[in-house]
Amino acid sequence: MRVRRCMHLLLEPSEQISFGIAAILRGRVEVGGEVTWVALAAHLERAVVVDAAERALLSEVSAYRWQELSQDVSRSSACVKLLESGLLLSEQVEHAEYLSRDQAVREVHWWSPAAIVHRHSRWQGVDSVGDMRSQGLVTANDLRRNLGPPPSAVQEYEGVYAPLPRQTDSAFDAMLARRTTCRNFDRDRALPLQLLAQLMQRGMMAQAGFEAAPDTVFLKKNVPSGGGLHPVEAYLLVQNVEGLAPGLYHYHPLEHALLALPSPPAGEMSRLACTALSGQDWFADAPAMIVLAPRFERCFWKYRNHSKAYRAVLFDVGHLSQLLYLCATEAGLGAFVTAAINEVDVDRALGLDGIQQGSVAIFGVGWRAGRQETTEFDPAHRVWA
Ligand SMILES: Cc1cc2nc3c(=O)[nH]c(=O)nc-3n(C[C@H](O)[C@H](O)[C@H](O)COP(=O)(O)O)c2cc1C
Questions:
Q1: Of 212, 213, 216, 340, residue with least CA distance to 284
Q2: Atom 17 in ligand 1: residue holding the nearest Cα
Q3: pLDDT per position as a tens digit, 231-268
């Protein structure tokens, strides 16, 4: 049988920490650890525990070259287990799914550590609010009590800091001061299509396209982008927008137009929103959300297997989020961004594979509610009197 190793693979010694009860009762904490090796591969959703024989076999097989294995080796339990778990690949029909998943990752030119971080940091069905509550890490006081004090808010060097002049009287400064993450949306007040369209025009639309060749187009947008590639796509999750049926949409940045995508029934959009936001109900009422989903393959087309490329893509998402925040603030709307999302569930709803393209953050926008039920960070009372 011919085999090849999967493309991106990280082997990690993982220590199972156990606390000895007897020692705790004596007032001491002793950590007894058992080390198991886990394999994290970029084409697999879950880690696989590997023993010494499996690690040895993995180290003997190339990720690039197909190798013929002797009958003895291919029948060994190590080989069978590695093939069944997808860490080793074969051309046999029963392993075809893993082969095609690995091939899909190869074609996108990920840098190995980034591919593994990306794949294994995606959430599915996580309830981040429930987790925060069960760990007692909800309020600032909870954090202080359970985690101790954080590193100082400001890095200060010894010496005399020379003050800089302050300017705070422009309309732009006033607008910046009003930007506060909104956690209280008016669930009954629809967002006018006009305001959503303005937000998309300012935040996501391409101002121009430059055609280096008919099949090689670069966009100009209101945000910077690593390599000028603008890989981040916008998908709308619409719950309550005047003149727009609830559902999922793709935004076309050159046409400034929406395409309706296959969507759950209108009555189930709020469940999808809440799952997407990992249970953060304070955001889930937002009448419109923008899923920011980079096409990694576009960035990595130029930055092949590049150690900075994933970082650049995440910067792009951050730039878009800040621009969208400011556009929403200027329009008198509340806005939020969150990275605490269930990417696997979101990508499935949008038909994305997560590796060529996948969700990274969700931005939401809408009218603020009349009352602040969930705390917002507005110490200067620019939003809430
Ligand atoms: C990358 C990123 C992720 C965030 N994720 C969450 C989140 O999961 N839940 C939440 O309530 N706020 C989230 N926020 C909002 C921050 O909590 C908020 O920006 C911060 O508390 C400062 O408040 P301000 O935006 O009102 O100035 C996120 C912000 C950023 C930039």
A1: 340
A2: 181
A3: 999 999 999 999 999 999 999 999 999 999 999 998 99
CA angle, 150 as apex, 148 and 123 as ends, to 5°? 95
Q: CA nearest 219: which of 306, 303, 293, 299?
A: 299
Contact 379, 320 (CB under 8 A): no
For residues 1 and 214, give the distance between their C-alpha atoms in angstroms, rounded to a whole number: 44
Q: Is 177 in the pocket of ligand 1 (CB under 6 A)?
A: no
Reported as a single tens digit per residue, the pLDDT across 259-278 is: 999 999 989 999 999 999 99
Tokens of residue 377, six digits: 């960070």
Query: Cβ(244) to ligand 1 under 6 A?
Result: no
171-366 in CATH: which number? 3.40.109.10
- Closest residue to atom 2 of ligand 1, CA basis: 338
Three-class SS state of 184: coil
Cβ neighbours around 58 below 10 Å, total:
19
Domain map (residue ranges) of the chain: 2-106, 171-366
